[in-house]
Amino acid sequence: MDNNVYQNPLITRYASRAMSENFSDEKRFKLWRKLWIALAESEMELGLNITKAQIDEMKKHADNVNFEVAEEYERKLRHDVMAHVHAFGEQAKSAMPIIHLGATSCFVDCNSELIILWDALEIIKNKLVNVIDKLSAFALKYKDVPTLGFTHLQPAQLTTVGKRATLWLQDLTLDYNNLINLQNSFKLRGVKGTTGTQASFMELFNGDENKVKDLEKRVVAKLGFDKVYGVTGQTYPRKFDYNVLCVLSQIAQSAYKFSNDIRILQNMKEIEEPFEKSQIGSSAMAYKRNPMRSERIGSLARFVISLPMNSAITAGTQWFERTLDDSANRRIVNAQAFLALDGILNIYMNVSENLVVYEKVIAKHIAAELPFMATENIMMECVKAGGNRQELHEKIRVLSMQAGRNVKELGKENNLIELIKADGDFKAVHAKIDKILDAKNFIGRAPSQTVEFIETEVKPILEENKAILGQKGNVKV
Asked: Which residue of 3, 175, 306, 334 lies most exposed, with the fewest beta carbons within 10 A?
């Protein structure tokens, strides 16, 4: 690595090797050659003067990209596609006259970019499913463990640790469905010519529209796809990039919410992300256990969430059949959105399968708040035993204020239950009060909701993708 120049941290620190390779020049230019071969082979099959020997020579050099030659041509021609046409032609000399026949640059550029985006979506889908798998196991393990719910970041009715995890899961299942919908609508640009009219191919096939349409079907099939945009200008619709980035942004939003929840829970010492034996939390404060993984998720997520607006502007400023002000922008935005989200999901997998739950701390926090929450139940038991509801309500209000002062002003423990036990007006519940205060009386259907949600909405996703389960999250640094 050259330490004298800027290195993209998405490559060096966060993204996986697989995602980095997916956006590499090696992959892109091999796809260009695959596209040129598919085009030439299909043109030959439909009667153009192209020989099998020419096709075979192209195939011989399909994976042997002469990068240095192409770079030299680009310096001279200032055109990347034509540089690679000439570089390919130097290797497949007999095929040089027919490489790129009838095509425009966007034939290779757009179709290859779409295939790269498709493969990137597959990587993201696989990691997303693995996060869902790990979180579902966590949710089921802790479905019965009561914990304080929070609204407005203030203690509210109880939920369970597992039920809370289903909220993270639900976000991810929505994201998964959006990703699948995007893939189901996926199309290649196809073989459309310079401004999308297929005029050059009509010329090559002497005005035979059926052959031109057949050509497009053949080329796309050779690439492993079956759908193309019905009409295009010179490029595929840049709105597709926006749709892709919106799906990535939604996954990033879900990860961001999860990471913030974990950071708060770690502050409360209820749940922690993994912390390795030799890991340092602070250069000054040696005792610290900072949630650096969750913080990194949030940091990268903020970047991904910001990117759809960029693609929206690109889509909105494509004049007529096309302008080239999209090119440099898209080289950066599309790749980096995927690289960043890939890094996010690597960390998300790592955190979700290694969360540490401190049940005694959770129980302690419940004990500090539950007396206030239990007052309605205590009052109702006394009413059933013949007490006056209004008088009991006032008495509990007074005792609650006293206990609240004990906690907030004096810094002592919540003594509301002791005050109630010492008050003769509540004698009817003194023997039952410990049973009333069992936290599991206050969690409603949280455990069964957890099971039902995973059975009905999560398991079908996992079953559909069972072949790719078992991935581990790799945190580089």
From this structure: 3
CA pair distance 305, 245, nearest whole angstrom:
8
For residues 180 and 116, what is the distance between their CA atoms, to the nearest angstrom? Answer: 16
CA distances from 147 to 61, 255, 261, 269 (A): 62, 22, 14, 13
Which amino acid, one-letter code, is at 62?
A: A
* Phi, psi angles (nearest 5°) of residue 168: -65, -40
Are 190 and 229 contacting, i.e. CB atoms less than 8 angstroms apart? yes
DSSP per residue, 37-70: HHHHHHHHHTT-S--HHHHHHHHHTTT---HHHH
Q: How far apart are CA 194 and CA 106, in angstroms?
A: 8
Q: Which of 185, 282, 306, 448 is catalytic?
A: 282
pLDDT in tens, the chain (477 residues): 678 899 999 999 999 999 999 999 999 999 999 999 999 999 999 999 999 999 999 999 999 999 999 999 999 999 999 999 999 999 999 999 999 999 999 999 999 999 999 999 999 999 999 999 999 999 999 999 999 999 999 999 999 999 999 999 999 999 999 999 999 999 999 999 999 999 999 999 999 999 999 999 999 999 999 999 999 999 999 999 999 999 999 999 999 999 999 999 999 999 999 876 445 454 445 444 789 999 999 999 999 999 999 999 999 999 999 998 999 999 999 999 999 999 999 999 999 999 999 999 999 999 988 988 888 888 888 888 888 989 888 988 898 899 889 888 988 888 888 888 888 888 888 888 888 889 999 999 999 999 999 999 999 999 999 999 999 888 877
- Is 282 part of the annotated catalytic residue set? yes
Spatial CB neighbours of 413, under 8 Å, sequence gap ≥ 6:
368, 406, 407
Residues 346 and 257: beta-carbon distance below 8 Å = no
Query: HSE of 351 in the Cβ direction (CA atoms, 13 Å)?
Result: 27
CA distance 13 to 476: 6
Radius of gyration of the chain (CA): 31
Distance from the Cα of residue 201 to its chain's centroid: 40
Q: Is 283 a catalytic residue?
A: no
- The DSSP bridge pattern shows strands 356-357 and 271-272 to be antiparallel
DSSP character string of 233-256: SSS--THHHHHHHHHHHHHHHHHH
